[in-house]
Design goal:
Helix content: 25-40%
Order of helices and strands: EEEHEHHEHHEHH
Distance between the termini: 44 Å
Shape: globular
Radius of gyration: 15 Å
CATH topology of the largest domain: Arc Repressor Mutant, subunit A
Structural class: alpha/beta
CATH superfamily of the largest domain: Winged helix-like DNA-binding domain superfamily/Winged helix DNA-binding domain
CATH class of the largest domain: Mainly Alpha
Strand order of the largest sheet: 3-2-1-4
CATH architecture of the largest domain: Orthogonal Bundle
Strand content: 15-25%
């Protein structure tokens, strides 16, 4: 059974979904709890709302801290990758290791996976990331200082907002108010 909980952050209402093996999804913040709930239930229509279990309290606090501009790494957040294709899991492992405030390009992630020609596939895997923020896909950018894509609501602006909160140089290079 999948359960979920919503929680307030400095930039809106975020959410976690979990099962017996750990997190199955994370939802980026929305402006209000009802919008977040509807969005979450589109992804997990059979999920039951429940209190955050004690083993995920630190994950919630770390997400809140990150969205306040602090720099927790979220590496101890338990994710359930059992439904994740093997290549995607490898991409997510590399992305998870990028510290807050830093970035890698899609090509650099591909090189770390052993083949620089996999940059497009890296982008496709990150576009399906079920754990945004915990697996910080926003920290992976295009070559040449360009932000690249971002599949979450708000698109690239959301990506740049997250990078700006973290103090990443990539956000400073982009005009956030264009």
């Amino acid at each position: 059974m999948i359960c979920y909980a919503l929680f307030d952050t400095a930039i809106g209402w975020a959410g976690l979904a979990w099962g017996d093996l750990g997190l199955v999804g994370v939802h980026l913040p929305e402006s209000d709890p009802e919008t977040a709930r509807r969005s979450f239930l589109r992804r997990f229509p059979d999920a039951a709302e429940a209190p955050v279990p004690p083993q995920l309290d630190k994950t919630v606090e770390d997400i809140r801290a990150l969205l306040r501009g602090e720099k927790p790494d979220l590496l101890d957040a338990p994710i359930d990758a059992s439904r994740t294709p093997a290549f995607h899991a490898r991409v997510y492992e590399v992305a998870r290791a990028i510290p807050p405030g830093e970035t890698l390009t899609y090509g650099e992630v591909a090189v770390r996976l052993g083949d620089k020609l996999l940059a497009r596939e890296v982008g496709q895997a990150l576009g399906k990331n079920p754990w945004p923020i915990v697996v910080p896909c926003h920290r992976v950018t295009a070559a040449g200082g360009k932000p690249g894509g971002f599949s979450a609501r708000g698109g690239v602006n959301t990506k740049l907002k997250l990078l700006a909160i973290e103090g990443a140089a990539a956000a400073a290079q982009a005009d956030l108010f264009a």
